Amino acid sequence: MKRAISLTAILLAFGASAAAAQDANISFFITSSNSGDGADLGGLEGADAYCETLAEAAGLPDRMWRAYLSTTGSGGVNAGDRIGDGPWYNYEGTMIARDVTHLHSNGPNLTKATILTENGDQVNGRGDQPNQHDILTGSLMNGMASGADGDTTCSNWTSGGEGSALVGHHDRQGGGQNPTSWNEAHPSRGCSLENLRGTGGDGRFYCFATDGPSGGDVLRQRER
């Protein structure tokens, strides 16, 4: 009897340790909802804070969470320069990319099945009702901000009405110039939540954890 109890305790402890190890690796998610005003996220600062709020509410690791969003104009920032060095893992502990180069290549493990929310849920894609596969990025496929004329970031994430933003398809399918791109499929119709939903989105965006102290140092250097 004692041996059976001991074995059960060991198995429970092992399961808890494995879950803790998995949780510690979580460093990527897609937001489970919009922050409330379409593409007006309160700028990069507001978007980052929303990533951190969602991560904390979901009990994810206490890390430096950053939104995968680019900005343009004076002081513009490339999304690929603000998320650390990787690797990144989803809610299930599956690696989605080894590093920034892998993330922006043809080979990252980014699909509807692996791009999970902070709660471990899948997000609707093409063929689901409603389709919510348009993800705000303001970025080109290489992770950089667009240099094209016109608005590509909904006024650097401060407009919930006029303007437009580049979006990706988290399910890697659909229409647009680059339908299989997770970060640059096409421009949005507008910046309001209504218009974002009208083109197959829900005002969601990607959140990445930087790599701890060293990753945070890299991030701070890049944003100076």
Structural description of this entry:
The protein is of the alpha+beta class and 224 residues long. It is built from six helices and eight strands. It has helices spanning 2-25, 43-57, 100-103, 154-157, 193-198, 212-223; strands spanning 28-30, 65-67, 88-89, 95-97, 134-136, 166-169, 186-187, 201-209. The strands form two sheets. Strands 1, 2, 5, 6, 7 and 8 form a six-stranded mixed sheet that branches. A two-stranded antiparallel sheet has the order 3-4. Strand 3 (88-89) and strand 4 (95-97) form a beta hairpin.
Task: List key phrases describing it.
single chain, 224 residues, alpha+beta, six-stranded mixed β-sheet, two-stranded antiparallel sheet, 8 strands, globular, disordered N terminus, disordered C terminus
Categorize the overall geometry.
globular
**Structural Rg:** 18 Å
Tell me the helix content: 25-40%
The separation of the N and C termini measures 63 Å
Protein structure class = alpha+beta
| Helix count, DSSP H or I runs of 4 or more residues | 6
The fraction of residues in strands falls at 5-15%
The major sheet is characterized as: 6 strands, mixed
What value does the average pLDDT take? 87
Uncertain spans, ≥5 residues at pLDDT below 50?
A: 1-22, 212-224
Instruction: Output the helix-strand order.
Output: HEHEEEHEHEEHEH
Number of strands: 8
Short description:
The chain is α+β, with helices and mostly antiparallel strands and 224 residues long. It has six helices and eight strands.
